[in-house]
Amino acid sequence: MKRRMGLTGEASDHKLAGIFSDAQRLTDCRREMVDSIAGIEGQIERLDPAGGAEAFSLEPEPRGIWHTIIRAHLWLALAGALVGLLILALMLSLGVPFVAQNVGASSVLLVVFCALGGALIGGVVSMRPDHVPYISKVRTALDDQRHVLIVHATSRDQFKAAGDCLERFADHTVSTL
Hints:
Distance between the termini: 22 Å
Mean pLDDT: 85
Structural class: alpha+beta
CATH architecture of the largest domain: 2-Layer Sandwich
CATH topology of the largest domain: Alpha-Beta Plaits
Strand order of the largest sheet: 2-3-1-4
Oligomer: single chain
Largest sheet: 4 strands, antiparallel
Strand content: 5-15%
Helix content: 55-70%
Order of helices and strands: EHEHHHHHEHE
Number of domains: 2
């Protein structure tokens, strides 16, 4: 599988979980998912209360997370630098006196500060704040003696199809963005 050069370095950006009080409904849901969604069988994992939530089950790509950290910071810092250049060009075209008289200093300041702002946003993306509710709800469900079906979808289509199936069978669903 060829990796794209986006913000994240993970193969499955889309994670969702179905929470079940009945283990048989989980089994039925899993069976339907495997039968109806191509290639998803290796991306599904069942978590039972006795086993607990292993960190690897919830976030199975430690290497991908490091790729996300690097890519998000680099891409967003570059985007910030480009925004800084656009702001510089706009200010020059408007004839802002300080910028027109100090092109070198203005360009360094705008590009560097905008690149730093982009890198800071990259840090927020790297923290993956959308994963916190997903992880905490799964752990709470297991603590409450419920069963969980984890799906690591590799495409938007898989994510939607798995979500539709979980909506029909699960008591509750939770997903990342």
